[in-house]
Amino acid sequence: xxxNVPHYVVVWDLQWQIIECRRLDGGCDLRGQLxxxxxxxxxxxxxxxxxxxxxxxxxxxxxxxxxxxITARDPxxxxxxSFSPFGK
Length: 88
Hints:
The protein has a 5-stranded antiparallel beta sheet, covered by helices on one side. The chain is α+β, with helices and mostly antiparallel strands. The protein has 1 helix and 5 strands, in the order ββαβββ. The protein is 16% helix and 33% strand. The chain is globular, with a radius of gyration of 14 Å.
């Protein structure tokens, strides 16, 4: 998938429910967008459990845990998320 396709920065709960989703234009600084989202969450009292060098990070606050990701897949899409190498 190329860098000029739209991406999304998504905050999920641990049951894969979308808490927040923002569409990013193709060609934008994806690492910068993820860093900005994590910085905003830190300002709101969340604590990152690790760095985001792989395009995602878990954050915690009190007894809540969330997943913050950058993805090219539209998180609102209902299309299958897996494929079979054996065809249909």
